[in-house]
Design a protein that fits this description.
Layout: H1 13-31, H2 33-54, H3 56-62, H4 72-84, H5 91-136, H6 140-144, H7 150-189, H8 191-207, H9 211-238, H10 240-245, H11 249-295, H12 304-334, H13 336-350, E1 371-380, E2 383-393, E3 398-402, H14 409-416, E4 424-429, E5 432-433, H15 439-444, E6 446-450, H16 460-464, H17 473-482, H18 486-490, H19 509-522, E7 527-531, H20 539-550, E8 557-562, E9 573-578, E10 581-586, H21 588-593, H22 598-605
Parallel strand pairs: 3-8, 3-9, 6-7, 7-8
Antiparallel strand pairs: 1-2, 1-4, 4-5, 9-10
Helix pairs in contact: 2-5, 2-7, 3-5, 3-12, 5-7, 5-13, 7-8, 7-9, 7-12, 7-13, 8-11, 8-12, 9-11, 9-12, 11-12, 17-19, 19-20
């Protein structure tokens, strides 16, 4: 079932003018004098081209076509100019001047094209950089509220439409400026013919004015359905393993085909609309030109030379008028992109984190930290997640947090890193309220490893040293050795320069997790948080990761968050979390000794712990 685009009055003219005004103000704010300079170059290009065609009038007169005395003010002005410059009005002289004028006009045209392309590419790059910067600087709750594909569509698809809007606006301005110059020169040559042709053109624009709303509404629908397409594609490709294993490929294809078909229908209407407009526009103008050519001299008594020049100007002008309508339609299609990009940009900026980059106390450097959670309350919207949570983690301790899925374990990790706000309570790090710490510096001394190890598309070295301020080969090897990853890395044909593939696809799960752990250790953290870091590994891979983790005991504070009890067998303390509350605490042996306790029941449910080999 396809979803309709959001209902709005955005297809009305006030909204169109508002979006157009926003686009123009944005271009002026970003480029200032360069934008005005582009308009000036456009005007100069149109003037030079128009002058080149007007010079046909004395050329025709010199060839015996038309009456020089009936050529109007333009003909008189040109004769006076030739006399002032002491130039003979011969066909050869006039042809040489015409060639010279068009040579200069083409040089100006090249300059116009270079300046326009420079501004166009810079405009799109600035928007993409600004949007990505706003998103990456936003708080974590901003990402939790985003639909799949929305941000990537805004960054790639909608900014591409902004490029189309800028291009169409540039072409529209060029056509308008050139058209005004041509029209002015044509009026000076023969106001009768020019008035008639301009009147017909104006009536055509009024008749086609209603298609502006259709193009703008189609542009909004295109943006909506393109976002849906990216979201559905990401969702289905991300679930490829489930789809293949459940033999539901046809269901996935049907869902994808439905979205593609809806988008195709929107694109078909948008692609056909400019064709209709151009066909009507060109047919009417060509018919008018033919009528003036047939009737101009015999019926209206117009000068043949002047009529020829005016018609030559309009022969050059009418394709611009036709493409002007087409660029206008393209602009209406692309214009909604300014709203589709500014909306997430403003939303991200409102959600921006104010991160202090000042250093942590020097006494903390290279030492494990103590963590105190006091009466912690945290919620997502109206749903409470952590409730009155209190626990203590001594410096250098290895502490386990266990519990069923949905108990709030990962939310606790987010709170410790300052990613989500607290509704009540506080977190103290070495006796200082987390909210008073320089958050950027704090996060740099927290190593974080999650279940699905995220690796960048690059080499092993690139991934381990990601974000390390002063990376060296010593740091690289030390981190790999601590993570029990050095042996398998050195066994690779290219060692640390071995590519890992898209999201680490060229490595096994255990190898990816050890590289992820090495990356966390490379920053020499004071607190290491492992959020289900071994839950997806086989027994041997889990054993190797746990060996690396236990080797860190005492040198840094370690928090292991897991639902697999075997991962915390060697922990100094274990806390059982259920429905956002600590319901039990103790060592492994103490918790197992409590008959009927929560930990003992979890232990029994997991088949006597189903633990990994002890490290």
């Amino acid at each position: 079932m396809t979803q309709p685009p959001p209902r709005s009055d955005a297809a009305g003219e006030p909204a169109i003018l508002s979006q157009l005004g926003l686009l123009l103000r944005d271009i002026r704010a970003r480029f200032g004098l360069r934008a005005w300079g582009l308009l000036l170059v456009m005007a100069l290009n149109g003037l030079m081209e128009g002058v080149g065609f007007v010079l046909l009038l004395p050329l025709l007169n010199a060839m015996g076509i038309g009456d020089p005395d009936a050529s109007g003010r333009v003909g008189t002005a040109l004769r006076e100019l030739f006399a002032a410059l002491t130039l003979p009005p011969t066909p050869g002289t006039i042809l040489a001047i015409i060639i010279g004028v068009f040579f200069v006009q083409n040089a100006v045209f090249l300059g116009q094209g270079y300046l326009a392309s420079a501004l166009l590419t810079r405009y799109v790059a600035l928007w993409r950089e600004a949007l990505f910067a706003a998103c990456i600087r936003a708080g974590w709750p901003f990402f939790l509220d985003q639909k799949p594909g929305n941000l990537s569509n805004a960054l790639v698809g909608e900014t591409s439409r902004l490029e189309a809007a800028f291009y169409s606006l540039n072409q529209l301005a060029a056509s308008l400026v050139t058209g005004l110059v041509y029209a002015l020169l044509a009026v000076l040559v023969s106001w009768q013919v020019t008035t008639g042709l301009l009147l017909i053109s104006g009536l055509l624009f009024l008749a086609l004015r209603g298609t502006m709303r259709l193009g703008y509404a189609g542009g909004r629908a295109y943006g909506h359905h393109t976002g849906r397409l990216q979201g559905v594609a990401q969702e289905l490709l991300g679930g490829a393993r489930f789809i293949k294993s459940s033999a539901t490929e046809e269901s996935a294809l049907a869902q994808f085909r439905d979205v593609v078909e809806t988008l195709r229908r929107v694109q078909r209407r948008l692609a056909f609309l400019p064709t209709v407009q151009r066909a009507v526009f060109e047919f009417t103008l060509i018919s008018a030109l033919c009528a003036f050519l047939a009737l101009g001299v015999d019926r209206l008594g117009l000068d043949a030379g002047a009529l020829f020049v005016v018609l030559a100007l309009f022969v050059r002008l009418y394709p611009r008028l036709a493409t002007l309508q087409q660029h206008h339609q393209n602009l209406m299609f692309a214009l909604p992109a300014i709203g589709h990009v500014t909306a997430p940009l403003e939303q991200a900026r409102r959600a921006a984190e104010v991160l202090d980059d000042s250093p942590l106390p020097p006494t903390w450097a290279g030492r494990p930290v103590g963590v105190e959670l006091r009466g912690l309350h945290c919620a997502h919207g109206a749903t409470p997640i952590l409730q009155d949570l209190t626990l203590s983690i001594p410096p250098g301790a290895l502490v386990g947090i266990v519990g069923p899925s949905g108990a709030g374990k990962s939310t606790l990790a987010d709170c410790l890193m300052g990613l989500i706000p607290l509704q009540a309570g506080r977190i103290d790090i070495n006796g200082r309220d987390l909210r008073t710490l320089p958050m950027r510096s704090w996060r740099r001394v927290v190593g974080y490893v999650i279940q699905e190890a995220f690796l960048f598309h690059g080499t092993i070295a690139h991934n381990i040293l990601w974000g390390v301020p002063n990376p060296t080969s010593t740091i690289l090897e030390a981190a790999a050795r601590q993570a029990r990853a050095l042996d398998f890395i050195q066994g690779q044909p290219r060692g640390f320069e071995t590519p890992v593939g898209e999201r680490g696809s060229l490595l096994s799960g255990g190898q990816r997790q050890r590289i992820s752990l090495a990356r966390a250790l490379a920053s020499q953290p004071s607190l290491l948080i492992l959020d289900e870091a071994t839950s997806a590994l086989d027994a041997d891979a889990e054993r190797q990761v746990l060996e690396a983790i236990h080797a860190c005991r005492g040198r840094l504070t370690v928090l292991i968050i897991t639902h697999r009890l075997g991962a915390v067998r060697q922990a100094d303390a274990i806390h059982v979390l259920e429905e956002g509350r600590i319901v039990e605490s103790g060592t492994w042996d103490e918790l197992l000794a409590r008959e009927g306790g929560r930990f003992a029941r979890l232990h029994a449910l997991q088949g006597q712990g189903r633990s990994a080999p002890e490290a």
